[in-house]
Amino acid sequence: MSSPNVSSTIDLADIRAAAERIRTHIHRTPLLPSRSLSERAGVEVRLKCENLQRAGSFKIRGAMNALLQLDEAQRKHGVVAFSSGNHAQGVALAARTLGIPATIVMPENSVASKVAATEAYGATVVQAGVTAATRDTIAREIAEKNGASVIPPFDDERIIAGAGTAGLEIVDEWPDVTTIITPLGGGGLLSGTALGTTSVHPSIDIYGVEPAAGNDGQQSFRTGRIVTIEPPKTIADGARTLHIGERNFAIIRERVRDIVTVDDDVLLETTKWAMYRTKLVIEPTGALGIAALLNGAIKPRGPVAIMVSGGNLDFSILC
Fold it and tell me: Which residue out of 83, 199, 220, 309 is catalytically annotated?
């Protein structure tokens, strides 16, 4: 396979440093067993509940890790992020916590509740004329004009290291885990999890899961080069990315066992079932791993931990 243009230079020490750096600003989320899920899957399953994290997803881990490394001058000039939702909320809350001005560029078709939450955290939201394809460019133009720092959603070593702290919590609490399944959008959570956990336990199998309509990561993994797609139409709004990040891909291609996909109809039914049986609020992106396990796309060799990446659910999809 050909190499991506950008390589990642972070290692386990960076993830451990991130864990210590953000420790007092985030929740150590529970790793909850589910008898219903374990019985259906035929293997012991536990859910890493990042849906119970501050701002409702794992994203605050990377956002907080990035913002805490800004110097005083950078903090004064503020930050700009681009996101369809969860990264937006994570940056907005981290910025408010640290007293840093934040502007978030969000596509016009972003989930309304995620936009409202981002604004409630005190960030300035820019949406007019923004699409999934233009949000990065618009954000960087705003940052250049204002002298602000850009906080990317996934292709950034500070973001990867922060996301990787969730994986370290899994292997620290459950050394017997053999398989970890993680949703895949831009690759921040998957690459961080893969790097951290396989650095501690090299034998762990790491899987990524995408919506079938947005399988750019799977195509990239199969071909060995980053594939860009059109904006995907999927209920998994956290995975509506056009391509995987280069730094993320450098890690994923070396440390991930496979990337699989799930159709939206299966994902919706799994989201409803998982919420009913676990009594947890889970957004479709957060249910990708559960769906992949239950429909047989992943066949684990032992105990499984599934990253429930977020709980910022658009309840209208359930109707």
Answer: 309
